[in-house]
Request: fold
Amino acid sequence: MAEPADLAVLQVLALRATLLGAIRRFFDERDFVEVETPAIVPSPGLDVHLAAFEVNTSQGEPVGWLATSPEYQMKRLLSTGAQRIFQLCRSYRAEEHGRHHEREFTMLEWYRANATSDDVIRDTEELVAVVANALDQPAPEVQPPWQRLTVDEALQFHANVELDAIVNDEEQFFRVWAEKVQPRLGNERPIVVTDWPSSMASLARLKPNGMADRFEAFFRGVEICNGFGELTDAAEQRRRFEQDRSERRAAGSPVYPIDERFLDDLERGMPESGGNALGVDRLLMLLVGADSIQAVMPFPEERL
Amino acid sequence: MADTSDIKKGFKMLLDGVPFAVVDHQFVKPGKGQAFIRTRIKNMMSGAVIDRTFKSGEKLEKADTEERTMQYLYPEGDSRVFMDTRSYEQISLTNEQLGDNVHYLLDGTEVDIMLFEGRPIGVTPPTFVELLVTETEPGFKGDTSSNTTKPAMCETGLQVNVPLFVNAGDKLKVDTRTGAYVERVKG
Reply:
């Protein structure tokens, strides 16, 4: 591993070019099609703690929002028959800024039709090992398979508290998670955390055990991706959107519209699918041993 | 009223009536969860450093602190008297409040004094001070390279480990952050 360093801009761009090339090769070899979806969208995502940039014309007419992830449009492609798709794009989150956050960042998102979350977890493990090699950082610790842990196990192991005891108090859950659990996840090797509470299912389906079919991978205390066995039930998806909207209203957050075309396409039928969204800047940061994503971006906000 | 968006290194806030200064901070936002600011903060009264996590957007009370440059004048009982070089206002700090810094005070030394709600709570001396050696074992001629050190007593009562070639009457440059010998000052 390289020493943490503020890498010179050309070196950063060379690393990124290598990384992006390796990602494209990885998916190409597995018969994925690279797709493009718009940055300006009619609904930027309804997750309660997401803040989007509103886009207006010069006359102040609202046009839409910058996408916080390309999820809705990529899933609409699955409904139209796409089998394996991936996208490298910028995503935008208006109120996230810190060593592991930038308001504009690079997202890798991919979907497999007729597949499960296990399939995309395997993709993730292989992808990280392959790109580490391509970057000349063949870290033995990232070789698959990665350890798996449920949310409940992670809480018990690192914070000595059971999920049941805090699942109904979301602020308490995330405080414990942020303070005690996440900083210790994946310190030696990447780790996959599964079985999130159904209240945090977002766009994941529920598993037979009642937990969300959602996973996140962590490496050295940093979340690198968030994936789902996708929810394909349009009625359930609408119910969750309405729930998110009422929570946003109660919190005084902007209440974004529901993407009706996305729900229409779900209604028409989306195959059982697995999908994952991975933070490209964070992955690069971790693989080259930098201590912030800004160190591996050519023009982070603070140097713009 | 401030909030968590004001947090940066050195930001001073009041928690349960005690002033704290931010040493380090990080924005954290678990996956689909709400955002927090994880901080490491220093109790400005006791010097103790603790970890504290704030909810993003949480209101914070700014600590009423002010740092003023003052000149050391003279000792008075268990205290030391300083003067604001602009207003000529005088204040005194007890030796206990000054801690080790008491050993870096010479006539006229300029220090930064931290005031909390108008009362002095701490002092930052210059990073380097020059102190006269009053007492040390005689040096050995020619021994200038060895790592061996010996104790030396300075005019302010500070004891420093010095190389063997240092003699009583020499002037030393001392790092006040560590209390360590830096070099012998010529002249």
